[in-house]
Specification:
Blueprint lengths: L1 E8 L9 H11 L21 H10 L8 E7 L22 H8 L6 H13 L11 E11 L5 E10 L2 H4 L7 H11 L1 H16 L2 H41 L4 H27 L4 H5 L2 H15 L7 H27 L5 H18 L9 H33 L6 H38 L4 E2 L8 E2 H43 L4 H4 L2 H42 L7 H19 L1 H7 L4 H13 L9 H17 L11 E7 L1 H20 L2 H4 L11 E6 L3 H8 L18 E9 L31 E7 L12 H10 L1
Parallel strand pairs: 1-4, 1-7, 7-8, 8-9, 9-10
Antiparallel strand pairs: 2-3, 3-4, 5-6
Length: 794
């Protein structure tokens, strides 16, 4: 009797732990002996028309699998073994990632396979494995496959490789912020990766120039512009704090400021006591008497404080600014782990804003602390405008110096343009929404502090200045941004809608194999992919010409309060967008099938992330995967028998995980010489017939197209290059916008549904079209062919 293991690997999206393996168990449990595949595609008849036949079938059903039992396992996570190679990249050179640093310092060109291996190795080399509390908890479903007489013919164990928790930070309602962090501040890194890979292969001054332009544009968007927005938020918070403090009596304000030196005495004294060591109760209490004495003295002094002067105002401003600066520093410190250099860059940027803002007070002074904050805010805003102007200029140059054509160089440079235009467009939309809401709040909250603009305009009430800024510039920019973003997104939404319809209302099996329907859906999606170039061009046009012309027009033709419909419409749109983002759980239901598109974008971004070097998502996922694979390869039953066959069933992004891992360990084993010299626990890969069954794989349609030098091999993946794989079977739906065919080895239209039985023995590579449908319905009743194929492999 054979022992057979099936490892299930889920795809994109917010998957639930153990859900995938249970779905596969249910899929197999539903199979019966004597049911031809064609019967699953029969058109349903009205209720009652086949009552007798249904009763006869129900009483005669003979399940192919006995009920599965669940066994929980806890697997220690160890990293993928990485052989020593080139000298490590120094920390000081990691501002743009280890891959960029190695390519920049390399004296020779690299092959496309070397580029993939070097990039992957850089992601894995610093990961040391998860902590004990991160031990991987998985589920094994144990069952038996029986013949039509009920005799057991094999033991079948189903395992799950769950990775969604390592790819995205799920935080309930706040998960929207982590997802938009990726869209706004990390997607541009993918453009840097693809241009870096092209430069490593092609070389030459032109590619070096493209890479330099891409690096600077990404830096301005993800570091300079982000830091300036945080500084502006900190200044606004400080000004609001000063405004609120002005409502308090002078004595209360004095006591609030006086609390700082008292706290400093306690903290400083505690540090001194700690540093002395040999702690006793008397040493432990030592800081308290001076702190209490200082508090008493300051309290007595506060009784004499009858009015507010510039020393107290200055102290309050510095205190609030310090708190805001500390919070910004903590945010940037966390961000610095993913974007090295962000924290260091914040210091000179902040100095420029402060010096420029204070210097302008000489020729156009202000008479109150809130107005000083407004002046600093105005200086930061002008700096932000300069950064956006530089980013637009660089993005425009990049667009015109890109390589043209559908070959690898052309696709690489177009990916670079897209990875700047898309996050910039989203950033413009989101940040303008936020500043519109903040500005409206401040303009209705702040008192009528007199303010003189940096341009020397006469004194005006600060709320009026803010109102004018909103109505003349912010609201027009927001309105145009919403319109242009909608126009740019329309071709993409138009093209994907037929596929999305099948996500919401998947076709019945008899509908999915309709030849005309399947071929039409496939041809429509092919046209959509060609048309998406137009969407990308519109996004670039929105970010460059669209925003530039809007800013110039709003400057020379201020809207003013006479066009209140613009302000009202902008604020309404901002409120709607904010409400949708806040209602995260409900938002997923409102996306009407479009959420997998966002999930794909986020998971691809995570898979290609290099930072943090010791815990990036790919390193952790591959560590978990290889640890489970080691366990399965070396498992034995009570009689000492191992698994005779292993089937890996993977969907969507799970196919990329699987192919990347098996290809990488095969390459490392080849470089080491043998499994014994590389990773002895994987040497059974040479003995086990490992079958790979993939569905909706984005390897060719996404990774090869958008990252052609980094994933050149994904254009026609070779199963022989994957460790242990003896056969690779790929299934796809004609309207799957994430992944479809990998090889097109069959003549004719690739979108003709196939109902042919599984060939025996399985060829090294083969694939078939399931029929019409999209990306998320492979493991349910709408795709009976998948269950039959998996059963045949088992």
């Amino acid at each position: 009797m054979e022992n057979i293991a099936v490892i299930t690997v889920h795809g994109v999206g917010d998957k639930q732990e153990f859900a995938t393996v249970r779905e596969i168990g249910d899929l197999l449990q539903d199979l019966n002996h004597g049911e031809p595949l064609e019967a699953s595609f029969k058109k349903p008849v009205p209720c009652g028309a086949e009552t007798g036949e249904n009763n006869a079938r129900a009483s005669a059903e003979k399940p192919r699998y006995l009920p599965f039992r669940e066994q929980t396992l806890r697997v220690n996570v160890r990293p993928v073994v990485v052989q020593p190679s080139a000298p490590p990249v120094p920390k000081s050179a990691l501002r743009h990632g280890p891959f960029y640093s190695r390519v920049k310092n390399s004296k020779k060109l690299m092959s496309r396979d070397e580029v993939w291996w070097d990039f992957t190795r850089g992601q894995l080399e610093c990961y040391k494995g998860d902590e004990p509390e991160d031990t991987y908890k998985t589920l094994r479903l144990e069952g038996e496959k029986v013949d039509d007489s009920g005799q057991t013919i094999s033991n079948v164990h189903l395992y799950e490789l769950f990775w969604s928790d390592l790819s995205t930070h799920r935080a309930g309602v706040f998960s929207i912020f982590t997802e938009f962090y990726q869209l706004l501040f990390h997607l541009s890194s993918l453009g840097v990766h693809t241009i870096t890979a092209a430069t490593a292969v092609e070389g030459g001054r032109v590619w070096q120039a493209r890479l330099t332009l891409q690096i600077w544009a990404s830096y301005i968007l993800t570091i300079a512009i982000l830091i300036l927005n945080l500084i502006m938020a900190g200044i606004a918070a400080t000004g609001l704090g000063l405004d609120l403090l002005s409502d308090l009596t002078p004595r209360v304000q004095f006591l609030l400021v006086a609390a700082v030196p008292v706290a400093g005495i306690l903290i400083g004294g505690g540090y001194i006591v700690w540093d002395l060591g040999r702690i006793t109760i008397w040493k432990w209490l030592l800081p308290w008497p001076p702190a209490i004495a200082a508090a008493a003295i300051l309290y007595r002094l506060s009784a004499r404080y009858k009015q507010i002067g510039w020393p107290l105002e200055t102290a309050e401003g510095l205190l609030l600014a310090s708190v805001a600066g500390l919070l910004i520093g903590l945010l940037l410190r966390a961000y610095d782990k993913r974007r090295p250099g962000a924290l260091a860059s914040s210091v000179p940027i902040a100095i420029v804003v402060i010096v420029a803002g204070l210097a302008t007070l000489i020729h156009s002074g202000v008479s109150n602390p809130v107005a000083v904050c407004a002046r600093l805010f105005e200086a930061a805003l002008l700096s932000l405008a300069a950064c956006w102007a530089a980013f637009i200029a660089l993005t425009t140059v990049i667009f015109f110096v890109q390589a043209r054509g559908a070959d690898a160089p052309g696709r690489s440079t177009w990916s670079g343009v897209l990875m700047l235009a898309l996050p910039a467009a989203v950033f413009i939309l989101v940040s303008t929404v936020l500043w519109a809401l903040i500005g409206e709040f401040l303009s209705t909250t702040l008192k009528d502090w007199p303010y003189v603009s940096i341009w020397g305009a006469g004194p005006k009430a600060l709320p009026l200045v803010l109102k004018t800024l909103l109505e003349s510039h912010v609201f027009p920019i927001l309105s145009v941004a919403i319109i242009l973003f909608a126009v740019a997104a329309f071709p993409a939404v138009w093209g994907v809608t037929p596929s999305v319809k099948t996500e919401i209302d998947p076709p019945e099996p008899f509908e999915s194999i309709d030849l005309t329907y399947s071929k039409t859906l496939g041809a429509w999606l092919d046209s959509t992919f060609r048309g998406l170039t137009f969407s990308g061009f519109l996004l670039w046009l929105m970010v460059t010409a669209g925003m530039s012309l809007t800013v110039v027009w709003s400057y020379f033709h201020p809207v003013g309060s006479g066009n209140g419909w613009i302000a009202g419409g902008s604020l309404s749109a901002a409120a709607v967008i904010t409400a949708l983002f806040a209602a995260r759980g409900s938002l997923l239901k409102l996306t009407l099938g479009f959420s997998p598109v966002l999930d794909v974008l986020l998971d691809v971004d995570n898979w290609l992330r290099e930072m943090p070097r010791d815990s990036n998502p790919k390193a952790r996922i591959m560590g978990r995967y290889v640890s489970l694979l080691r366990y399965v390869l070396n498992w034995k039953d009570p009689g000492g028998k191992p698994y005779h066959k292993i089937v890996i069933l993977s969907h969507s992004q799970g196919t990329v995980l699987t192919a990347d891992l098996l290809r990488y360990v095969a390459e490392e084993k080849s470089r080491a010489g043998s499994w014994a010299d590389y990773d002895p626990e994987l040497q059974r890969l040479d003995d086990k017939p490992l079958t790979l069954f993939t569905m909706g794989s984005p390897l060719r349609q996404l990774y090869h197209v958008r990252f052609p030098f980094l994933y050149d091999w994904a254009g026609r993946p070779d199963p022989a290059k994957l460790a242990g794989v003896k056969a690779w079977r790929n299934a796809y739906r004609s309207g799957d916008y994430v992944g479809r065919y990998l090889w097109i080895v069959l003549p004719g239209n690739p979108f003709v549904p196939s109902m042919a039985p599984l060939p025996h023995p399985l060829p090294l590579r083969s694939e078939f079209c399931v029929g019409a449908g999209a990306h998320t319905h492979y493991w349910d009743g709408t795709a009976p062919a998948v269950a039959r194929e998996l059963d045949a492999m088992i």
